[in-house]
Amino acid sequence: xxxxxxxxxxxxxxxxxxxxxxxxxxxxxxxxxxxxxxxxxxxxxxxxxxxxxxxxxxxxxxxxxxxxxxxxxxxxxxxxxxxxxxxxxxxxxxxxxxxxxxxxxxxxxxxxxxxxxxxxxxxxxxxxxxxxxxxxxxxxxxxxxxxxxxxxxxxxxxxxxxxxxxxxxxxxxxxxxxxxxxxxxxxxxxxxxxxxxxxxxxxxxxxxxxxxxxxxxxxxxxxxxxxxxxxxxxxxxxxxxxxxxxx
Length: 247
Prior knowledge:
alpha/beta; Ubiquitin-like (UB roll); Rossmann fold; 9-stranded mixed beta sheet; 12 strands
């Protein structure tokens, strides 16, 4: 009989505890749902290509206390690969959120030769927006023959590869008066690169070696050995250290 009363008393106490916890939870939820905690304004700065309203539409937050800077930052970086840097600040008193954005700058266009998909790429080697297929020397064009797949927001080349391409394009234009139509990446990880010139011959580079050494060797050969035969060139191979092969 005592056991029965103890069990009944325990259930009564347990019921009271559950009721109190439920009431507390309801009060807490209701407290944070009060209009006084509703976000009043979201300010977006620094965006150029990305529309402000598009950013705001992806921020489905209501409560200033329940919305963290980290969550906002992660959500926006995931949704908009065009964003390079992002700063989020909350003002709890004014119930305002300030978002400062730095968008990625176009370095060039990379095209997958297996699918003909093209993307804009920045100096960090990250693709961030679909791009049209193009040709010519006005923009850096990289053709990727590695047969790999990738999507927006991915780093498809390391920064040293992008730096190699930039230095090569600038050097050839300024020192040799030679323009590159496209840079062909032949494998992944990148080892060799083929650069097609506007004179209808190409250059083979070793991406594992310094660009400066290979470019200096190219300039020397063009000025000293094949100056008058440049228009008849088929290729120049700079991949072997201390050797220059040409045809």
